[in-house]
Amino acid sequence: MKPVIALVGRPNVGKSTLFNRLTRSRDALVADLPGLTRDRHYGEGRVGERPFLVIDTGGFEPVAKEGIMHEMALQTRQAVAEADVVVFIVDGRQGLTPHDKTITDFLRKSGRKVMLVVNKSEGMKYTSVTAEFYELGLGDPYVISAAHGDGVADLVNEALDQAFAQRPADAEELEPQERGVKIAIVGRPNVGKSTLINTLVGEQRVIAFDMPGTTRDSIEVPFERGNKHYTLIDTAGIRRRGKVFEAIEKFSVVKTLQSISEANVVILLLDAQQDISEQDAHIAGFILESGRALVVGVNKWDGLESSDRDQVKTDIDRKMDFLSFARHIYLSALKGTGIGPLMRAVDEAYAAATAKLSTPRLTRALEEAVEKQEPKRKGGTRPKMRYAHQGGQNPPVIVIHGNALEGVTEPYKRYLEKHFRDTFDLIGTPLRIELRTGKNPFAKAQN
Ligand SMILES: Nc1nc2c(ncn2[C@@H]2O[C@H](COP(=O)(O)OP(=O)(O)OP(=O)(O)O)[C@@H](O)[C@H]2O)c(=O)[nH]1
Ligand SMILES: Nc1nc2c(ncn2[C@@H]2O[C@H](COP(=O)(O)OP(=O)(O)OP(=O)(O)O)[C@@H](O)[C@H]2O)c(=O)[nH]1
């Protein structure tokens, strides 16, 4: 499971700046699709080979009893409860404030591992910028400049070391062939996730034991259908050592993100008997950002009149336009209908995500696409696409090589994506198109 780092601090200390820096590389992966709401408070980051989740929290007023500040305090508590390590940011230019002390008291009570970080420290001496913060009693401060990036990689590496040091050794893992496709079922509260898990797994359901003093990570529940092995990822709740305090809300974004990132295929459950909500769109956004293969399960299909069914289908297609690459399966977890098609869609999405696409086939498909419709000229030059190769799997990345490719427009990229998707039957997986303009071998080397 990916370690979770929460960024906490009073307003304006640079939390968002640090958050953006940590998650920036991921940002480019999802184009701004119409209708897709993205949650800017949760993100994935990576230093070197080490992935992690990061939570940005709003300005924090631990004593607020009502209003927006109270709401934000609740969110911060939730973030702290779910974090492995809290990065507590203070402002090196402004110096220590009473508010910093209040936050320190709160963090100390939380029992979490806290790293004190002095931001905005570019161009300043370690001793002078940190001196007054020793008073907080949180040990040697780390100094960074979120805006310039100084000290950020060291900070994250240290945070990850701390996170791993606290974790119990992972439970014994099953052999890959026994696991089959790993599936996460995600969705907002009450859509029927537990019901679907029970329908899929039946008597094989493994009840996780919940001993005080242990950390319960994701639970893997193996099951079989039609002689095929699958594994359900069930992050059934995370309780930390010492049980200092529990997560406040029942729905946990962290839990959802963890299961998505452990899975090969995600089933996004929607409730056909309720309107599609903002929360559904948020969860869909997380799945898209992860690049995982996807099946949309429209649950509670039982008990709907056929006119209602048409209405629901239209509504989902309109509001979740950006999920049109995935199959929509209409099912009833309760009655057990639609389960066969659901699992076939899972297999299909997995196959698409892991498809191997050879350079000649890709290049042929590219040529066909260009023949049907050429990219527009930009500033007198027409982008010239020469060949395509596969740059990655799961999700498939198609790298197109050529010249003047900066001029290729977003709509044309989407056109290409659709063409590749149709040609290779890539249903249920996001697809990434990368354009690479070749260097002119005759140009002089520049330093
Ligand atoms: N000099 C300097 N300024 C910084 C640095 N990091 C952030 N800032 C500035 O500090 C201000 C606040 O940064 P934000 O990232 O919005 O701070 P925040 O903690 O997320 O603020 P809230 O969203 O209000 O909670 C901005 O004007 C940033 O440009 C830094 O490393 N050095
Ligand atoms: N009519 C109908 N009701 C269903 C179906 N699936 C689940 N339900 C009902 O919806 C309610 C919520 O189901 P759960 O399986 O607990 O939902 P969940 O998504 O696990 O909920 P949380 O634990 O809150 O996240 C229960 O009352 C179920 O009986 C279905 O296919 N049809």
Observed structural traits:
repeat, 447 residues, nucleotide-binding, ribosome binding, six-stranded mixed beta sheet, alpha/beta, 35% helix, binds guanosine-5'-triphosphate, Rossmann fold
Summarize the structure.
This protein has 447 residues and is α/β, with parallel strands linked by helices. The chain is built from 13 helices and 15 strands.
What do these coordinates show?
The structure is a single chain. The chain has 447 residues and is an alpha/beta fold. It folds into 3 domains: 4-166, P-loop containing nucleotide triphosphate hydrolases (Rossmann fold, 3-Layer(aba) Sandwich); 176-353, P-loop containing nucleotide triphosphate hydrolases (Rossmann fold); 359-437, 2-Layer Sandwich (GMP Synthetase, Chain A, domain 3). Helices cover 35% and strands 21% of the residues. It is built from 13 helices and 15 strands. It has a 6-stranded mixed sheet with strand order 2-3-1-4-5-6, sandwiched between helices. Helix 12 packs across helix 13. The longest helix is centred in the N-terminal third of the chain and has 16 residues, at 67-82. The two termini are 42 Å apart. The model is unreliable at 25-29, 205-216, 237-245 and 441-447 (pLDDT under 50). The protein binds guanosine-5'-triphosphate (2 copies). Residues 187, 189-195, 299-300, 302-303, 332-334 line the site of one guanosine-5'-triphosphate. Residues 378-387 have a biased composition (Basic residues).
CATH architectural arrangement of the largest domain: 3-Layer(aba) Sandwich
**Unreliable stretches:** 25-29, 205-216, 237-245, 441-447
CATH superfamily of the largest domain: P-loop containing nucleotide triphosphate hydrolases
CATH class of the largest domain: Alpha Beta
How are helices and strands ordered from N to C?
A: EHEEHEHEHEHHEHEEHEHEHEHHEEHE
Backbone shape: globular
Question: Which percent range describes the beta-strand content?
Answer: 15-25%
What is the CA-atom radius of gyration, in angstroms? 24 Å
Average of the residue pLDDT scores: 84
The biggest beta sheet reads:
6 strands, mixed
CATH fold-level assignment of the largest domain: Rossmann fold
Can you list the ligands bound to this structure?
Answer: guanosine-5'-triphosphate
